[in-house]
Amino acid sequence: MSLIGGMRIVSTSPDIRIFFLQDASVKAKSLTPLVFSPLRHCHSLLLSSHHCGTAIALHLEELGEQQRPREGGEMGAWSLPCGWRLLFFALLAVAEVHGSSGAKAADALPPRLFSAEVRTLRRIAAEIGISSWNLSANPCGSGGLACDCSFNNKTICHVTDIFLNGHNFSAQLPPDFADLPNLIQLDLSRNLFHGAVPDQWARMRLQGLSLMGNRLSGPFPMVLTKITTLTNMSIEGNEFHGLIPPEIGQLAQMEKLIISTNEFTGPLPAALSLLTNLTDLVLRNCSISGSLPPYIGDMENLKHLDLSFNKLTGKIPDSFTSMEV
C-alpha cells in the first residue's frame, strides 16, 4: 500500500509499506509521534521537498524500540532498524540544510528604522505638514530621507540626512530634529519657516545645515555656534539682524559659511580668524560696516570670498595680495 500526503490516513494505516511525503505542504506542528508510530512495517519513505526538517526526524525516533536501562542505571539509546537508522541520519542532514537556509532567510530580512526615530519623524511630519513620509514601512530612501542601515547586524537604520528643500512649508522650525542623534545633514532651504532657531538644536551633531531662503528672524542664532561639528552652513536670505557674535569662532571645523542677505550690522568679528579651515566665505549684502580685517588675507584655505554690497570702508589690506581666491 502506498500513500501520497495525508497525515490522517497514516495514523490509521499500520500496513503501509511505502510512504510518500514529497512536495507536501505539511506544517511541523501537524506532526506528532502518533502520526508515524503505526508505520512499523514501512520499508520505504520519500520525504523530499518538505518543509518540516527536524520535526520529522525527531518523530521518526518513535519508530524505534527504547532499550531498557543498562546495569548501573545508565540509560540506553533509542534503537532503530537499519533502514530507519539510515533514513534518520539522512533526515538530520536535510534538517540542517533547511535550518541553514532559514537562518539565511532571517539574515535577509529588510532593515527597519529605529522605533524612537519613527516617533520623532511622526512629530516632525505633524508639525510642518509632511505627507510624503510612509512611516508605516521603512521610509529610508524616500521623501528626502537617507539612512545608515549598518547597525545591529544591518537590521536597524538611523536617519542621517533630511532634505526638505523647496516645499513651501510654513511653520516654526521643529525642535524635534535634535532627537535624531545620527542626523548629519539637514536641508530646509527655500521654504517659509519663520521664527527663531530652537535652542534644542544645540544638541545636534550636524555637519551640513542649510536654512537658506526662509523667513527666520531675530538676532544671529547663537544656538548654531554650539553645533561645533558643522563644516557647511548657510543661513542666507532670512531676516536675521544685529551683530555677528564672536562665538562664531567656535565653529572651528567650518569650511563653507554663507550668511549673506540678512540685516547684520557692525564690523566683522575678529573671531572669524579662528575659522582657518574656511574655503568659502560669503557675506554678500549683509549690511556689515567697518574696514576689511587683515586676517582674511591670511586664510590659507580660502578660495571663494564675497563681501560685496555691504558698507565696508577703507583700503584693502596688504595681506590680500597673497590670496589665491
Features:
4-stranded parallel β-sheet, 9-stranded mixed β-sheet, alpha/beta, 17% helix, 325 residues
Written overview of the protein:
Helices cover 17% and strands 21% of the residues. Helix 3 (54-60) runs antiparallel to helix 4. It is an alpha/beta fold. The longest helix has 26 residues, at 82-107. It is elongated, with a radius of gyration of 36 Å. The protein is built from 5 helices and 20 strands. A hairpin with a 4-residue loop joins strand 7 and strand 8. Strands 6, 7, 8, 9, 11, 13, 15, 17 and 19 form a 9-stranded mixed β-sheet that branches. The chain has a 4-stranded parallel β-sheet with strand order 10-12-14-16, with no helix packed on it.
Task: Break the fold down into its secondary structure elements and pairings.
Elements: E1 2-4, H1 7-10, E2 18-20, H2 33-36, E3 44-46, H3 54-60, E4 65-66, E5 78-79, H4 82-107, E6 112-113, H5 115-128, E7 145-151, E8 156-163, E9 185-187, E10 194-195, E11 208-210, E12 215-219, E13 232-234, E14 239-243, E15 256-258, E16 263-265, E17 280-282, E18 289-291, E19 304-306, E20 311-313
Parallel strand pairs: 1-2, 2-3, 6-8, 8-9, 9-11, 10-12, 11-13, 12-14, 13-15, 14-16, 15-17, 17-19, 18-20
Antiparallel strand pairs: 4-5, 7-8
Helix pairs in contact: 3-4
